[in-house]
Design brief:
With about 170 residues, this protein is mainly β. It is built from two helices and nine strands; from the N terminus they run E-E-E-H-E-E-E-E-E-E-H.
């Protein structure tokens, strides 16, 4: 069976940066991932690379930054007032922070670039923005997804335009 929409897929994978640094898996051990194809559980560019593969097949490929987490946006590096952070926290460059309260939902922590007195320079870009992703994958299992595996995904797909109200 080949990978296509509504298939359950189990794969082993290694994800590296251009520098060779492992983000997922290691030289000795891959990460394992399961998902159902066609329901935005993966980066679209990653899922597209997997379509048509079969169990036992291995592939290496690079997903360019623009198709992964986007290019770095200089407008997302901003100066914030120190008062936006708890007074008792010792803010340091490189530290990951999740602002609260925040006007938009935060999907990943922001990074402190610099602290200058009462000004904190914060990078709101995704941690992998601007990075090409180097994948090695091995397909371990491909089968039709079962109704219990599909049901919550199809429900979420039905309310995709109203994710704030989705209860799943």
């Amino acid at each position: 069976m080949i990978i296509h929409r509504d298939c359950f897929v189990r794969l082993a994978y290694w994800l590296q940066m251009a520098s060779g640094e492992y983000i997922r898996g290691s030289a000795e051990q891959p990460e394992e991932l399961t998902f159902v194809v066609g329901y935005r559980e993966l980066l679209p560019a990653l899922e597209n690379q997997l379509l048509g593969m079969r169990p036992g097949e291995e592939r290496r490929f690079i997903i360019p930054a623009a198709e992964a987490f986007g290019l770095r946006d200089p407008w997302l590096v901003q100066e914030w007032d120190r008062k936006r952070f708890p007074y008792h926290v010792d803010l340091q460059p490189g530290q990951a922070v999740v602002p609260y309260p925040c006007a938009i939902p935060v999907e990943y922590p922001y990074k402190i670039v610099e602290v200058k007195g009462e000004v904190v320079i914060v990078d709101q870009n995704h941690p992998l923005a601007g990075e090409d992703l180097h994948y090695r994958v091995k397909i371990l299992e491909v089968r039709p997804a079962t109704p219990p595996e599909l049901a919550p995904l199809q429900q979420c797909e039905a309310c995709a335009g109203e994710l704030e109200s989705c209860e799943t």
